[in-house]
Amino acid sequence: MDKQRRILERGTVAVDNGKITSVEKTGEVKGKHKAERVIDARGRIVLPGLICSHTHLYGMLLRGAHLDIDPPTDFSQILQRVWWPMDEAMTTSDAYASALIGCLDFLKTGTTCFADTYSGPNSIHLSLDYIAKAVRQVGIRGILAYEATERHSPEEGVKGIEENVRFIEKVGKEREKKVKGMFSIHASFTVSDQLMKSVRQLADKYETSVTIHASEGLGDLYHNIEKYGKRTVKRLHDVGVLGPDVVLAHCVQLNDDEIDIVRKTGAKVAHNPMSNMLNAVGVAPILKMLKEGIRVGLGNDGYIFDGFENIRTTFLLHKVHHRDPRVMDLQTVLEMATIKGAELYGLEKEIGSLEAGKRADIIVIKPDVLPTPLTPQSVLGHLVNTVDGGDVQTVIVDGEILMENRKVLSVNEEGVNAIAQRAAEKLWERLGVIKPHVEYPRGSSNIIMFDQGKV
Q: What is the distance between the alpha carbons of residues 232 and 251, in angstroms, rounded to a whole number?
């Protein structure tokens, strides 16, 4: 994923003090380095760690939950009946538990950096510290923000902004390498113009990114047309919030004029195909954005954390949507999950590719099933069509080996699962869903017992 998009059939990546010092053909590197440790990657694929451009770690605690609600018929009802009640039930302990299990899932499937926004109106203060603690324990990279919203009151929006300011200042003083802060605005239909202007001013002051959900569902679009007489992106532009440091999540309902605004302002887009499918909101006009030179990264929106599943979905979704098998080529979709993801948050000089001088965020893949030869000509096809997260063997972040031969070295997997399951049990009880009874026998795997029987 360097500027030349090189693929080395027999290559060596040298790492020293957390940085990549060289990426060369193996024959050219002999005698140049005296390594303390050598990882034999013969027969494997070595590439930069994946980057998730938009996620909600706390969504992990809703995985598999049976909600006793009337099935939502559209995205607005999904927010009202599922996500907003969950937001209000969240505690800072839940934020920590969900971040811990989310980061573990990312690590095991090859994602080494992510951008996360947390929402919990009853657990705003210090929430980002709890999430950062989990990120540091697992050892991957995280760009964190609290999702400012005025859904309940203007005061709630102020508290959300204050949490971001507090955290940005804290990690700035600590000169944190792996954890960064940013600003997050929930969506234009839950905030005022004044809140967006305040965030814009603070982002300029702290020189950090801003992310906002934009035109995910039709409700966002209709709200802005009815109240302001403008489409969503036009309103964001007129308020003055857009710029090269802004990442717009989703952008499903954009028309050509709005795409042109995104291009002219230099704003970037986080595409979340699997979440958009789950919520039945539509297909974002990503091909038009790419044609206009808009930078697009790949996110999961808190749904499926295996980056390779999201890569494959992106590759296929736009083909069927446009009824054209030629669109969304292998190289483009892999770039969205690596170097383009880094560009979204201004990190392209640090991560996103294997190049000398960049941080050593590296994953090593060995496909369990490899029906055809692995060659420079076939490797991109295998990464998109053959590989899944379970094929990731080794993960290195900032030069530190966090997983080797599928064994996680940074945290205890069973312990992390237990923390997440206990948190989910209590959260589900508060939400009024099925009440599971969870037992953790000593010296054995976790057993979850539900009212309906054993699982």
A: 9
